[in-house]
Amino acid sequence: MNKLFFLAVLLIGMVFPAAGKESIRIVGSSTLLPLISEAARRYRQTHPDLEILISGGGSGVGIAAILQNSADLGMTSRLPTATEQVQLKTRAKLIPIAYDGVAVAVSKAIVSHGVKALSLAQIAAIYRGQLRNWKKVGGPDAQILVIDKESGRGTRHVFAQAVLGNPHARAPGAAIVTGSNNEEQAIIARSDQAIGMLSHAWLNDKVRPLGVMINGQAIMPTTENIRNGRYPIHRKLSLIVPNHHSPAVGNFIAFLLSKSGQDVVEQVGYIPIR
Questions:
Q1: What is the domain count for the chain?
Q2: For 62-101, b where at least 16 C-beta lie within 10 A, e where not — what string?
Q3: Among candidates 21, 51, 54, which has minimal Cα distance to 36?
Q4: N or C, fewer C-beta in 10 Å, the chain?
Q5: Which pTM was predicted?
Q6: What integer is the mean pLDDT of 253-265?
Q7: Is 142 found in the same domain as 82?
Q8: Helix, strand, coil content of the chain in percent (nearest 5)
Q9: Where are the alpha helices (DSSP H) in the chain?
């Protein structure tokens, strides 16, 4: 994902509906933001009278928007909490549209220094502040710059559950807390000491994934390993759909689940659900 594309995504989210046009407002996960934005652009080529307004803020924001009736669709990269599930139970349902893996992301420099994979225990020790130098895991003699995410972010929930055993676990080793994937990607790319959590679709030459050691084998966040669940930090990306929604909303969801929509999923860098 490059910065120009992300800026284009933000611009889409700031468009206001023209008078007399039907609109769909979609709010939530920044992980889903580029996917839904590109799908909306393609869909509007054949539905020019429909405005699709998209904004991020995180999965928690998307769930809250549906509960508050302030959006037509919510985007979430995590499962709702127990409390959220109770609140959503009679009001909305989750429809998965893609698979994703949360990569343990580092700069190219860290990989070049020989760090290729870490165990879940080592990653947890880094985030708990118990392991502070890359030299301890075969890397350079440099302090580890630990990047966490805001508590409401879906990526953070999934990562913390898999690594720390609790989606709400604290990360006292973290020096920086970020919001969007774009923000975290930029920090990791500029640093030769950082480690973070990032959707695998946001990896590039400057931001590389580490494998996760399981039974002596490094498991990388490849398409196959994410789809079959072998890579341990994986998830489904979903839309939160109110039970009572407009035909326009239903038609857009049908497009996302169609071959054309699933082609967009793959082209943007995620893994089709179908």
A1: 2
A2: bbbbbbeeebbbbbbbbbbeeebeebbeeebebeebbbbb
A3: 54
A4: C
A5: 0.89
A6: 98
A7: no
A8: 40, 25, 35
A9: 3-13, 33-44, 59-67, 82-88, 108-112, 120-127, 154-164, 181-190, 223-227, 247-257, 259-268
